[in-house]
Amino acid sequence: MNVQETIEEKLRRDLDPLHLEVINESSMHNVPPGSESHFKVFVVSERFAGENRINRQRAVNRTLKEELAGPVHALSMHTLTPEEWEARDRATLASPECLGGMGK
User: Which is more confident, 85 or 101?
Assistant: First the structure.
């Protein structure tokens, strides 16, 4: 199982999302081809109801503790309740282009 599949499996198991997107954005960064080091996740879950953004992100971080300590260098998170997701018309946000980091 690759890193993206592992992230998807763990988030589904722990957060029971109504909507989940795991996007490998590694190719947008200064990393070798085929890398799985930079991800963006959209997680829509009832479990986020009544929780602030920090606690929602902490829940994701706990779930992905092993991946964040290993292969994942960067993780962008969008953690929403179903009501927040509907208010956004179920829209996701595009990530900005990488500014180059240390390698450029």
Answer: 85
